[in-house]
Specification:
heterodimer, A: mainly alpha, MetI-like fold, B: 10 strands, binds adenosine-5'-triphosphate, binds magnesium ion
Chain lengths: 245, 272
């Protein structure tokens, strides 16, 4: 493993050492936990920010893509194609090493990560909402129009309330994906869970493996809490007697 | 026909879909207290025609008049006003699935007519009561039978105070035992003088209600006249041939009465 990027042999050593001195090491881990939890605050902010960004812009884009005029639909399709097809890490490097370093234009890392991940999530969320909008029977739009509603009113008060309900499972999925993607933010110096985990692992080489496992457990717990909340929301706004949502 | 004498009047409507002519020069007018019934073979253009009247489908040519005034459908205000005043009942109800029966009736009152929540609610309950459903006000569409759904749809249309109602096969999606309750509501409307244009395959219904029957085939009006004339025993009309063929196919919704002059039995008033 000489010259390899990752120090495997060191890690295997650390692993056996960890169990040789289990009591002390567990104690040390508990002491390090608050530092990791500090990072989880930033992770939650990044995830919530990106999800809300994606909701705010993804929803209107989906409406344009389903009901809008052709040229606008194409523009949305191009946006979606670009952001679904480009890795988040590439976009992050473009912003950080392009904008920040070359142009010497700098702003908050957390905001930058929220912006990039939010724009990517906008693309994915617009496709979740598009599917939901298209699954609402066309007759309901006709029914609304026949009462004198404008298309805007009909979409806002008839179609969207139903489409949003149907979107919750897709949205839950997007949440768990974004949460994991947020780990990429450490690559550009954002102080979230992974960046703290890496810092601690380097400082406490013998505990590296345990620290990464701990980080993984924190991700799992945040995932479960979010999914649980969304499932509750879904049950709360369920339409009585209606089987799909 | 002079549009001034009618509530709703369509003159010389033409419509093609993808180069195929669906409506050819169709003119129909509905006056005060009239019930005109559209019949004819499937695919003849009845639904297309009805939807041209409130511009859910835009005709390629021809004019629509409401109270003698020509509608300029390019003007959104005028279009939305027309649609408020022309009620429409669909074959598959088109209720809003996320709203209760009350919500289905009140939402357009609030969003379109700008009524307060309280006033809209009171009006909705009143309209549901008229179709015998006040006790189902809190039910969602998925919790209602087909007949109840169609009655909610009728209440929803009536709440807008329409001047005329278009009904597109209002009973054909219903189980036979539920047809009666919807027919009873429509009869009550007709008896109250509401002008109606009704497309149906149910001949007993057509015969009992129609002030005029309009027979449509391949996008053209082939025959029109009072039911007594078109369906009189021995009258050799297309309408009567069509009735006979419906009966031969054993169509459940067209009763054997069709070619006798005997009136259809009056269904009982709807219950909950
Ligand atoms: N949006 C559309 N695009 C293309 N063709 C259409 C469209 N809507 C209707 N048609 C065609 O127009 C013709 C008339 O249809 P329409 O639904 O008006 O007939 P109908 O008399 O109501 O028939 P039915 O008794 O089965 O309800 C049919 O051949 C149908 O295929
Ligand atoms: Mg039809």
């Amino acid at each position: 493993m000489q010259g390899s990027f990752f120090p495997y042999s060191i890690m295997i050593e650390a692993f056996s050492e960890f169990f040789a001195n289990l009591g002390d090491n567990l104690l040390l881990l508990v002491k390090l936990l608050p530092v990791l939890l500090k990072g989880s605050g930033i992770t939650v902010i990044v995830v919530a920010g990106a999800m809300l960004f994606g909701l705010t812009f993804g929803l209107p884009l989906s409406v344009v893509q389903v009901y809008g005029p052709k040229p606008l639909r194409w523009l949305v399709s191009i946006y979606v194609w670009f952001f679904r097809g480009t890795p988040i890490l590439v976009l992050l490097y473009l912003i950080f090493f392009g904008l920040f370093w070359m142009l010497n234009f700098h702003f908050n890392e957390i905001l930058a990560v929220i912006l990039i991940m939010g724009m990517t999530s906008t693309a994915y969320q617009s496709q979740i909402f598009r599917g939901s909008l298209q699954s609402i029977p066309a007759g309901q739009l006709k029914g609304a129009r026949s009462l004198g509603m404008s298309d805007f009113q009909a979409i806002r008060s008839i179609i969207l309330p139903q489409a949003l309900r149907i979107s919750i499972p897709g949205w839950s999925n997007e949440y768990s994906i974004i949460l994991k993607d947020s780990a990429l933010a450490y690559a550009v110096g954002c102080k979230e869970i992974m960046s703290y985990a890496k810092g601690l692992a380097i400082a406490n080489g013998n505990l590296a493996l345990a620290i990464y496992i701990l980080a993984g457990i924190i991700y799992l717990i945040i995932t479960i809490i979010g999914l649980w909340g969304l499932r509750r929301l879904q049950r709360k706004i369920r339409i009585p007697g209606y089987s799909h949502a | 026909m002079n549009p001034e004498n009618y509530v709703l009047c369509a003159r010389n409507l033409h419509k093609s879909f993808a180069g195929k002519e669906i409506l050819h020069d169709v003119s129909v007018a509905v006056g005060k207290g009239e019930t005109k019934v559209l019949i004819g073979p499937s695919g003849g253009g009845k639904s297309t025609f009805l939807q041209c009247l409130n511009f859910l489908i835009h005709p390629d040519q021809g004019d629509v008049f409401l109270d003698g005034r020509k509608i300029n459908s390019a003007n959104k205000r005028e279009l939305y006003d027309l649609r408020q005043q022309v009620g429409m009942i669909f074959q598959d109800f088109n209720l809003f699935d996320h709203l209760t029966a009350e919500g289905n009736v009140s939402i357009a009152l609030r969003k379109v007519k700008g009524m307060s929540k309280k006033d809209a609610h009171a009006r909705a309950i009143h309209e549901l009561d008229r179709v015998g459903l006040s006790r189902r006000a809190d039910h969602y569409p998925a919790q209602l039978s087909g007949g109840q759904k169609q009655r909610v749809a009728i209440a929803r249309a009536l709440a807008m105070d329409p001047k005329v109602i278009l009904l597109d096969e209002p009973t054909s999606a219903l189980d036979p035992e539920l047809v009666g309750e919807v027919v009873a509501v429509i009869r009550k409307l007709a008896a109250g003088g509401m002008p109606m244009l009704l497309a149906t395959h149910q001949m007993d219904f057509a015969q009992a209600l129609a002030t005029e029957i309009i027979f449509m085939e391949k996008g053209r009006i082939i025959e029109q006249g009072v039911p007594e004339a078109l369906l009189a025993p021995g009258a050799r009309t297309r309408t009567q041939d069509f009735c006979l063929s419906l009966n031969q196919m054993g169509n459940q919704n067209s009763m054997q009465l069709c070619c006798h002059s005997q009136a259809a039995p009056s269904p009982s008033a709807p219950e909950e």
